[in-house]
Amino acid sequence: MTEILSPDNEQAVSQIILDCKANNQSVKITSGGTRSGLGGTVQATKTLSLKSLSGITLYEPAALTLVAKSGTTYKEIQTTLAAEGQRLAFEPMDHRSIYTSQGEPTIGGIVAGNISGSRRIQSGACRDAFIGVRYICGHGEVVKNGGRVMKNVTGLDLVKLMAGSYGTLGVMTEVSFKVLPAPERQATLLIAGLSVEQAVNAMSKALGSPFEVTGVAHLPNNQDTSHTLLRVEGFDSQVTYRLDKLRALLVTNQDVKIIEGSKHEDLWQTIRNVDIYNDQAKQLWRISVKPSDAVIIAQQLREKTNADLYFDWGGGLIWAQMDDQLTNAQSVRQIMTGFGGFATLVRASATTKSKISVFQPQASGVAKLSALIRQKSDPSGIFNPNLLTSMNLNGGG
Amino acid sequence: MSTIIMPEPDLAILDRRDEIIAALERALPENNVISELAETIAYECDGLSAYRCPPLAVVLPRNTQEVAAIMRTCYELGVPVVPRGAGTSLAGGALPTADSIILGTARLNQHLDIDIPNRFIRVQTGVTNLSVTGAVEDQNFFYAPDPSSQLACAIAGNIAMNSGGAHCLKYGVTTNNLMGVTLVQADGEIITLGGEHLDTDGYDLLGLICGSEGQLGIVTEAVLRILPKPEGARPILIGFDEPETAGQCVADIIKSGILPVAIEYMDRLIIQVTDKFSGAGYPDVEALLIVEVEGSEAEIDQQLEKISAIANKLNPAALRQSHSEEESAMIWKGRKSAFGAVGQLNDYMCLDGTVPVSKLSDVLKAIGELSKKHDMQVGNVFHAGDGNMHPLILYDANKLGDLERAEAFGADILRLCVEVGGCLTGEHGVGIEKRDLMGVQYTGTDLEAQMSVKDCFDPNWLLNPAKVFPLALSAARRNRAVRP
């Protein structure tokens, strides 16, 4: 067991990093611990838990702004926002189902992985709502960037850089967000029986319409037939209007159903959290592509890896589960060489993970820059060693 | 004498002027290098026209390869490069120095690909902001960021300054609508970031590039997200006798769950000036809000009714809901002419500090007090929904010392913005204008973190040096720049 440190203030985090620097030690940064399956396996001398660095430090509903310490649970943030009829619009996925992990997801972990959900296509990713950060860099110093206002071009945008950096550039201590009003009503138009190609076309048409669909998914094998799902949100009458319009725009003679209420909540939770692909013995891939490429990529994935798969983001996001064989993983990488976008190996055995890059390999120019940035921010290699190894960010390891 | 100082030009570079121009000409065999003073003088300033200096030369490349050739040449010769879009920057972001070359995007003017099913457009970055919407509007799409200079400003500059506009509350700013870029680095190496898909594994270098004011590389091509046009949009005009009540109204609207596409605020000076200039028929009040919502006719009516109800609880002095395109145009007429109207009155300096929406009334009051203290007039017109203020300080450019007084007043306002939890600039960028105020918002450590990122992209500090970071702080880096 490595030593677990749980500082409850920023100063203490800073001291821990200074100690690491002085003693040539490294830390695995954790908090809720629900997403530790993401990335390479971290090998560090100590564990730095941010669980005790918790609490909402500022919430102004009228300014659509929330600031919280990084160990604050997502649940607390959700509850606080809901009391004022607001929410984080990027609806971060919960990884507990796919990893069968325990604990409570925290906001710091969400930012570190730039974790978003189905509403990404309409409201943006986590990084789009993320407007300010405080973190401890590898020199043990407090760095702040951005702030609490949503329009800010004062200096370089290190806020974006921190989102999705998996804690490898610093320990985030406080994060700020633009929040949005939660809608009065949500409903989903379900179209049954479309082929993947028909579905991608229909989803594209819906996303190209002015009816503001906020979730667009296609499940090819749901109860023997495919389900294409179009979510709309807004004021009560607005939702009725938009459902009518979408039906008129898209539906010819297929089966159609409207889903609402708690079933609706469950449905999108399942899609967002990838609940159906929780077989721990299998590989799970998250693949982001140009939506119109989804049809052919899905076909190739099925042919070469026999994958189960479904589509979110109108086809732009493919979730694929397959047998955990190295050859399957190699096939995914090989297929992606023909397309733009990226594929991330979200779940696999340690053996598979040790043999193939977990993250999409980067072009050399980009990898070089990323390695330099990491080196400047964490020259002693303190933060989450090995987590991004496969991207050549550990100096070519 | 103005208060913003630029470093002395490097005499060693000026001495090698002919050699540098010859090298650029070799790098661009099919494109000319502009080096006669009669022509370079056209590039001596941007929208911050109080500051001028013709560059050593100007190049206007036509594609990524030509940009790479220029960058390689300048890297080898140690010549600073100042990137320039359409030159509409209000912060001096494109101001040259005598020892720098201007790399202009004027000929990077092609729309390369329009993909409606996947909702993006690929452009060379010299195209204007408005032309992007122009290229897709017949298919009922648009490009959301709409800075008020959109007729003239280039996408390159929009990316450099992470431009916003009136509609950010709903659609975000440039960074939220930028999917990918082709970037030429300081040494001429070409990389692509992002693309036609969403998000990317690895560090978000695309997010870092956006708003980096030409400090990290030259963006030659961009993939921009386009959106379906709403069915319609209509505003409501609400006047109040007290600025505080207008601020309360903005807060109440946002809290109600309505997300207007724009909430614009004008104070008495601006109302009077624009009304006189445009004949918009604005009421005689202390504060005027224009709130616009989108959707179908019925959706718009419903939202405007809700907003009216919220406003009516606060006893507005005037309330006018648009029911037609003509009425909408009349409501917007004054607001859209605000900058022109103020320009008729006097010279003005336009700031763009952002404050938390909850602090708007306090800040307006404090600006009023500062106006008395500095004995200078100021008008306020701004995007209230996101707290992005635009105080317009009136001064007389021909009156000795007036610009300096205006700058001092402006600096006080920006300090105030930071004090209440906001920032120095919401959408115009730092440039030279706010460069030496950066220490008000950021500590030395904060700025060191930013400068060390620039080191990764531009180790010799040749890209738009002497901007963004306080001169004293960046001196060591700029001075160690390789000068073969």
Features:
heterodimer; A: Uridine Diphospho-n-acetylenolpyruvylglucosamine Reductase, domain 3; Alpha-Beta Plaits; 3 domains; five-stranded antiparallel beta sheet; four-stranded antiparallel beta sheet; 18 strands; 32% helix; 26% strand; disordered C terminus; B: 484 residues; alpha+beta; Uridine Diphospho-n-acetylenolpyruvylglucosamine Reductase, domain 3; seven-stranded antiparallel beta sheet; 18 helices; 37% helix
Q: What would you call the shape of chain B?
A: globular
Q: Summarize the largest interface: chains and residue counts.
A: A-B, 85 and 96 residues
Number of strands of chain B: 18
What's the pLDDT, averaged over the residues of chain B?
94
CATH architecture of the largest domain in chain A: 2-Layer Sandwich
Based on the structure given, which CATH architecture of the largest domain in chain B is correct?
2-Layer Sandwich
Q: How many angstroms separate the termini of chain B?
A: 34 Å
In the CATH hierarchy, the third-tier topology of the largest domain in chain A is known as Uridine Diphospho-n-acetylenolpyruvylglucosamine Reductase, domain 3
In this structure, how is the largest beta sheet of chain B organized? 7 strands, antiparallel
Count up the domains of chain A: 3
Please, what is the average pLDDT of chain A? 95
- The strands making up the biggest β-sheet of chain A line up spatially as 4-5-9-7-8
Radius of gyration of chain B: 23 Å
CATH domain class name of the largest domain in chain A: Alpha Beta
**Helical proportion of chain B, percent range:** 25-40%
CATH class of the largest domain in chain B: Alpha Beta
